[in-house]
Amino acid sequence: DMDAIINQFIAYIRQDQEANREQIQLNDLLQDIAQAEANRDGEIVLTLSECPEIPMQAVAIKRVISNLVENAFRYGNGWVRLSSSFDGRQVGFSVEDNGPGIPNEQIPKLFQPFTQGDIARGSVGSGLGLAIIKRIVDRHQGKVVLTNRPEGGLHAQVWLPLE
Questions:
Q1: For residue 158, which of 126, 136, 128 has the smallest C-alpha distance?
Q2: β-pair partners for 156
Q3: Bigger pLDDT: 142 or 3?
Q4: 8 Å CB contact between 161 and 141
Q5: Is residue 23 classed as helix, strand or coil in its secondary structure?
Q6: How far is residue 143 from each of residues 9, 33, 105, 120, measured CA to CA in Å?
Q7: Which of 140, 138, 122, 154 is nearest to 19 (CA)?
Q8: Where are the beta strands (DSSP E) in 28-112?
Q9: How far is residue 67's CA from residue 162's CA, in Å, rounded to a whole number?
Q10: Phi and psi at residue 33, in whole multiples of 5°?
Q11: pLDDT by residue (tens digit) across 67-124?
């Protein structure tokens, strides 16, 4: 556990700057993560839309997806949905869970380093996961939005530009 926390801290400080961007199909990354997570207890649902390739640092975006899926399994009740979308200007993906969600007033603070949604979702981890996600997405000129699902759970949506 300590190694994982230290590695997250190093990644946060380093900002994963060593990789160049390549044209990548986001759906391929989502499928890779879903396949890697298939042996977990629970259900992972994959709902993919047709999306164009976009320039990205594949390792960094895969880390974003993995961190969000890890949170969804950690704090959800065994169900996670990964989906992709394309709105003509940007490619997006979302990770949803069926856990308790997070109080709306806490959501903006969660992207700060060493912050956790302790009240609703427990206090496991280093509190760096969402800060790393935000930094990677910002570096891709994208945006990440967390909202509570009406039926319960958290919905994390990431949008990445075409160029």
A1: 136
A2: 95, 146
A3: 142
A4: yes
A5: strand
A6: 22, 20, 19, 24
A7: 140
A8: 43-47, 54-56, 79-86, 90-97
A9: 23
A10: -65, -45
A11: 999 999 999 999 999 999 999 999 999 999 999 999 999 888 888 776 555 444 445 5
User: What pTM was computed for the model?
Assistant: 0.83
Q: Which amino acid is at 46?
A: L
Report, in angstroms and rounded to the nearest whole number, the Rg of the chain calculated over CA atoms: 15
Amino acid at 15: Q
Place of tokens 């989502």: 30
Beta partners for 97? Answer: 80
pLDDT at position 23 is 95
**Which tens digit of pLDDT belongs to each residue from 14-56?**
655 555 789 999 999 999 999 999 888 889 999 999 999 999 9
Q: Dihedral of CA 124/129/131/133: which sign?
A: negative
Residue entry with tokens 């990644």: 11
Q: Is residue 149 a contact partner of residue 65, using CB atoms and an 8 Å limit?
A: no
* Structure-derived torsion over alpha carbons of residues 147, 86, 45, 133, reported in degrees to the nearest 10: -50
Distance from C-alpha of 142 to C-alpha of 159, rounded to nearest angstrom: 5
SS3 19: coil
Amino acid identity at 159: W
